[in-house]
Write a structure and sequence with these properties.
By secondary structure, the protein is α+β, with helices and mostly antiparallel strands. The protein contains four helices and three strands, in the order E-H-H-E-E-H-H. It is 40% helix and 11% strand. Strands 1-3-2 form a three-stranded antiparallel sheet. Strand 2 and strand 3 form a beta hairpin.
Length: 100
């Protein structure tokens, strides 16, 4: 049986007989779907849907999919979120009235 030997100068997790997947660097995600965004923020998918409806997230369309940017998820995570949804809705309607 062949033993895996550590490769000199490599991170401790990579060995000579390691699979190619172990040598691949991870890539930071730029866009998230609703389910992945909910998982990343530890909230429900419904909460993500509310945030999308009230414009709390920056989005991009790719075909039929609506994807949320990583920067808007980080911004949302770093702010406080309290108060009822009805207050946010009335504030949003006031903004639309001022814009008209």
């Amino acid at each position: 049986m062949k033993q895996n030997k550590a490769v000199p100068g490599s991170p401790s997790g990579i060995s000579e007989g390691a699979t190619p997947e172990a040598k691949v660097a991870t890539v930071e995600r730029l866009l998230y779907g609703r389910k992945d965004a909910a998982l990343a923020l530890s909230v429900s998918i419904r909460r993500i849907d509310y945030g999308l409806a009230y414009g709390e997230f920056e989005t991009r369309r790719v075909g039929k999919r609506v994807l949320i940017t990583a920067s808007s998820l980080k911004r949302w995570a770093n702010t406080n979120h309290y108060g009822s949804a009805s207050k946010r809705k009335s504030a949003r309607l006031d903004q639309e009235d001022r814009a008209a």
